[in-house]
Amino acid sequence: MTGYPPLAPIGKASDPWTALRSSPDQATAAAPDAKAGDMPEWDLTDLFPGPQSEALTLHLEKAERDIQIFQQRYQGRLADMAAGSDGGANLATAVTELETLHDLIGRVGSYAFLRYAADTSDPERTKFYGDIQEKLTAITTRLLFFTLELNRIDNDVLERAMENEALVRFRPWIEDVRKEKPFQLDDKLEQLFHEKSVTGRGAWNRLFNETMTALRFEIDGKDLTLEPTLNRLLHRDPEKRRAAAEALAKVFGENLRLFTLITNTLAKDKEISDRWRGFEDIADSRHLSNRVERPVVDALVEAVRDAYPRISHRYYALKAGWLGQERLAHWDRNAPLPEEPDRAIGWPEARETVLTAYGAFSPEMSAIAEQFFSNGWIDAPVRIGKSPGAFAHPTVPSAHPYILLNYQGKPRDVMTLAHELGHGVHQVLANEQGPLMAPTPLTLAETASVFGEMLTFQKLVAQAQDERQRKALLASKVEDMINTVVRQIAFYVFEREVHTERRNGELTADQLGEIWLRVQGESLGPAIELREGYETFWSYIPHFIHSPFYVYAYAFGECLVNSLYAVYEQAHEGFAEKYLDMLRAGGSKHHKALLAPFGLDASEPGFWSMGLGVIERMIDELEGMSE
Fold first, then answer.
1. Cβ distance 51 to 430 under 8 Å?
2. Mean pLDDT (the chain, rounded)
C-alpha cells in the first residue's frame, strides 16, 4: 500500500468556489498578464538538463540497476535479518538504502510531472510524462516486497531491533507502515494493484486532465480555457459573471457523459480496492494516509455542518443586502464588493507583500521564501495549456520544491502566492527528515499554507487606509474561509454520498446533479439561488478525481490555523521557533504531538468550534459595519 514517488503536488484546485484565490480578468480589455507585469517561469534544470539528456538517461539506468540490486540483497531476508544479533543495524542499512532509491526515482517522476503541468496540451510532454510513469511503475514493482515483509516481522522482534540507534531514527516511518498492516494483501496481489495503476486509476486521471485542458468556453465571441472562464465569475460586471456561468454549464453539460463515466469508474475502482483491503468506511483509506482518526474527522464535519447557519448562511444574506438583492444567483456568490479596489497588483508588489509579512513573523521563513523568487522555483503566468489552479510540488529532499501559479493581479492571487509559498517553506524545512519522513499528511500539509495566508492577510488589514478598505479585506477573507471550510466540507459530504450510492450501482448524471444541488443548497443557505446549469458543476472539481476525500484537509488546516494564530497573538514570545520546529518535523510526528507545544489538541470536542469561532467573529464585525 505504501506509495512510491513521484510525490504528489499539494495545492488548490482550479475553482474559485473551492479554495483557490484566483482572480478574474479586469473590466478593461487588457490581458491579465500585462497588468501583473513580467513574471517568472520555473527553471527545471536543477532536476535535469532536458527530457532527452544523457543525465536523465543515466539516472534512470542507475535507479533501475540499484533497485534490482536492492531486491536481490533483501527480498525474503528481512525477518531473519531483524532477528539476528545485528538486526537493528542491518535493518537500518536497508532502510537507508530505500531512502536513497526513493530520492532517485522521485527526482525523475517530479521532473516529468512538472514539465507536463507547464503545458498539458503538448503531445511530446504528455508522451514523456506517460512513458516515465510506466517506467517508474515497472521498476518500483521490485520495491513492493520491502514494506510487505517489514509488516510480517513479529512486533517483539522489531521492537528489539529498534533499540539500535541507527534504526530508531526511522521509528515514525516504521510505525506508519505498520498501521497499514491490517489492510495489506499478499505480494502478488500488491504487485498487480501497483502495475495496473497505470492503466487503471492513472489512465482515468490523465483522461480527465487532458479533457479539462482541451475544453473551450465561448464568451463574447472568444474561446477561453477553463482558468480565465472561472475567473470571470469574480468579474465586477454581473453580466460577465452570468455569461461565464452559462458558458461553463453549457460545456460541462456537453461533456457530462464522459465526466459521469470517469466518476463512476473511479468510484468503483476505489470500492474494489477498499473491499479487498478490508476498509470499513468509504473514507478510511484517506484517514489512514492522513494519519488522522475517523472520529476526529467526523467531529470536524459535524462542527462545520452545525455552523452553516452561523457562517455561510449569515454571510451570504449580508452580502445579498450589500449588493441590493434579496438572493444571489450562484454566479454572484463571489462577486467583488464595491469597496474592493479595482486595480491590478503587479508581481513585484505581490512578492514584496508576502515576503514582508513572512519576515515580520520570522526572518528565516522569509529567507526561505525568497529563494523561490531568486532561484527560478516559481512558474507564475497564465498560459494556454498550462495546468490550471496552483500547487507546490515537493520533488525530493536532494532538490527543492517548485510552485505553479496562474497569477492575474488581484488580491486573491496575492493570497494564493502566500498559500503556496507556505507549502514551499514547509517542504524545504521538512526535507531534513529525508525522503521517507519528509512528506506530510494532507491534514497537516495545509497548516503552513493557511498560516502564510493569515500572516499576509493581517499585514494587508494593518495597511488599510479606511473602513471601506478594511471591510473589503475582511469580506474577502471571510469568503476565502467559507470556501476553505464550508465548501470543502460540503464537497466531502457530496463525495460520501456519491461513493455510498455507487455501491448500489452506477449513478446517472441526473443523480449526481441532484446530490450536488442538495448538498450545496444545505451549505450555502437560502440567500444563494442555484440557477439552471449549476447541477453540472460537480464535474470539474479535480480533487474528486485525483484524491478522493482530500477536501476535508482544507477545512482541517483552516480551523487548525485559526486556533494556532490565536495562540500566536496571545503568546508571541518563542512562538515562531516552535512553529518552524513543527514544520521541520514533516511527517515524523502525529498531529497530537505536533500541536502539544501550543496547548492544542484536535481530538478535543471543542477544538473545531474554537477555529470556527474566528470566522464567526469576523462576520460579527462585518455586520457591525453594515449597521
1. no
2. 90
362 CB burial (10 A radius; 0-12, 13-18, 19+): middle
3-state helix, strand, coil in the chain (%, to 5): 65, 5, 30
State the Cα–Cα distance between residues 485 and 557, nearest whole angstrom. 9
Q: What is the CA radius of gyration of the chain?
A: 24
HEC-encoded secondary structure of 279-306: CCCCCHHHHHHHCCCHHHHHHHHHHHHH
Q: Which residue has the cell 540497476?
A: 65
Q: 463 is written with which cell numbers?
A: 495597511
Say yes or no to pLDDT of 10 above 70: no
Asked whether the beta carbons of 550 and 445 are under 8 A apart, the reply is no
Any idea which residue has 474577502 for its cell? Answer: 476
CA dist 210 and 94 (Å) reads: 39
For residue 609, the SS3 value is helix
| pLDDT, tens only, 389-405 | 899 999 999 999 999 99
Which DSSP string corresponds to 349-413? Answer: HHHHHHHHHHHHH-HHHHHHHHHHHHTT-EE-S--TTSPSSEEEE---TTS--EEE----SSHHH
The amino acid that residue 565 corresponds to is Y
Amino acid at 352: E
Burial of 463 (0-12, 13-18, 19+ CB in 10 A): exposed
pLDDT bucket at 23, cuts 50 / 70 / 90 = very low
Question: Contact at 8 Å (CB) between 101 and 70?
Answer: yes
- Cell numbers for 498: 456519491
- Rounded to whole angstroms, how far apart are CA atoms 453 and 561? 10
DSSP 568: H
pLDDT band at 72 (very low <50, low <70, confident <90, very high): very high
Spatial separation of the C-alpha atoms in residues 565 and 247, rounded to whole Å: 40
**The three three-digit cell numbers of residue 363, written as one number:** 526572518
pLDDT tens, position by position, 357-390: 999 999 999 999 999 999 999 999 989 889 888 9
Residue type, 249: A
Rounded to the nearest 10 degrees, how much is the dihedral formed by the CA atoms of 133, 135, 138, 141?
Answer: -70
The enclosing H or E element of 229 equals helix 226-231
Architecture of domain 47-199: Up-down Bundle (1.20)
Say whether 116 sits in a helix, a strand or coil.
helix
User: Could you tell me if 407 and 350 are in contact, meaning their C-beta atoms sit under 8 angstroms apart?
Assistant: yes
Q: Which residues contact 596 (CB under 8 A, 6 or more apart)?
A: none
Determine whether 18 is exposed, middle or buried from the number of CB atoms within 10 Å of its CB (0-12, 13-18, 19+).
buried
HSE toward the beta carbon, residue 37, CA cutoff 13 A? 10
Element (H, E) at 594: helix 591-595
pLDDT of residue 627: 55
- Cell 499576509 locates to 456
Angle at 389 between CA 383 and CA 395, to 5 degrees: 95
Comparing CA positions, the residue from 412, 401, 487 lying closest to residue 456 is 412
Percent of the chain topping pLDDT 70: 94
Q: What is the dihedral of CA 599, 603, 608, 611, to 10 degrees?
A: 20
C-alpha cell at position 149: 515483509
User: Within the chain, what is the greatest distance between any pair of CA atoms?
Assistant: 78
